[in-house]
Amino acid sequence: MKKIFLAMTLLLTMLFTGCGGDQPKDSGGAGKTDQKKIVVGLDDEYPPMGFKDEKNEIVGFDVDLAKAAAKKLDMEVEFKGIDWSSKEAELKSGRVDVLWNGLDITPERKENMLFSDPYMDNRQIIFVRKGGDVQISSEAELAGKAVGTQAASTAEDYINSQEQLKNSFKEFKTYGDYMSAFMELENGRMDAVICDEIVGRYYMSKHPDKIEALDVTVGPVSEFGIAFAKENTALRDKVQKAFDEIIADGTAKKISEEWFGVDLLKTKDKK
After folding, report:
1. Which of the residues 82, 114, 135, 240 has the least number of beta carbons within 10 Å of its own beta carbon?
2. Which residues have C-beta within 8 Å of that of residue 29, sequence separation ≥ 6?
3. Of 271, 264, 20, 24, which Cα lies nearest the Cα of 125?
4. For each successive 10 residues of the chain (271 residues), what is the average pLDDT?
């Protein structure tokens, strides 16, 4: 009888343990189609796309876009600052559901991540002092000018790769940050600054009487996209649909104009 009792006890324990393992899990994790919250991974020191304000709250252009898309989906959204150099691991592990933070779409990244449609061009353009006499309508017309940019930036990499163009400048100077470059431009010590359009236009929106943007692209143009785990097509499709809706109803345009003073978003008719 003892043997029978022990056997029945063991059987019941196994059955209850098995049932416990089949209980519904938290719906907030990455990759679940019934999840109620999206966790957005971002570099929270990248203005104006995502950064901490004076109240230590995460704000930014991409933050506002993500909030608007989540509202369309009737989902909560959480913004999580991550080590940007480990972004692919954060996404693959499920610690974040998406990367939405001015992320360039590249062939290498597409091997490991699933992307939305491109939503913005990332180009380097030229900024000059407002009211000055510098006229530039092409990259070649930077010849004879004092040109500045941020050290270790995409613009510096491009200029250094173009020896003939670089040698045509009167001067080429790099700065620790774009703010320092723009201050030099405002003071007349530089004729032009080459900068990421999104960063430059954000600065310009804060100093509308100091500098102006020229619609002149310098170097190649990349595209921003929203990234998801490679296998997470369900969430990608849901977010893409919501994003298309905020483009169509003008919400995204309004957000862009609030941050940059102009609509920089890609739409089907602008591609």
Report:
1. 135
2. 35, 94
3. 264
4. 46 43 39 77 90 95 98 97 90 96 89 96 95 94 96 88 97 92 96 93 90 95 95 96 97 95 80 51
Region at 219 (left for phi over 0; alpha for psi -120 to 50; beta for the rest)? left
CA distances 36 to 25, 29, 68, 81, 92, Å, are: 12, 9, 15, 20, 19
Q: What is the Cα–Cα distance from 80 to 31, expressed in whole angstroms? A: 17
Q: Answer whether 246's CB lies under 8 Å from 71's CB.
A: no
8-state DSSP, 190? -
Q: Tokens representing 149?
A: 């940019």
Chain-centre distance for alpha carbon 169: 32
- Exposed, middle or buried, 37 (CB in 10 Å: 0-12/13-18/19+)? middle
Torsion of CA 169, 170, 176, 179, to 10 degrees: -100
Kindly state the tokens that stand for 41.
């991974």
Between strands 37-42 and 76-81, the pairing is parallel
Q: Is the dihedral of CA 119, 216, 173, 185 positive or negative?
A: negative
Q: Is residue 111 within 8 Å of 143, Cβ to Cβ?
A: no
Cβ atoms of 129 and 227 closer than 8 Å? no
pTM of the shown model: 0.70
What does the alpha-carbon distance between residue 107 and residue 41 come to, in Å, rounded to a whole number?
Answer: 21
| Amino acid letter for position 253 | K
120 token code pair: 């913005």
Tokens of 260: 């940059």
Strand pairing partners for 195? 125
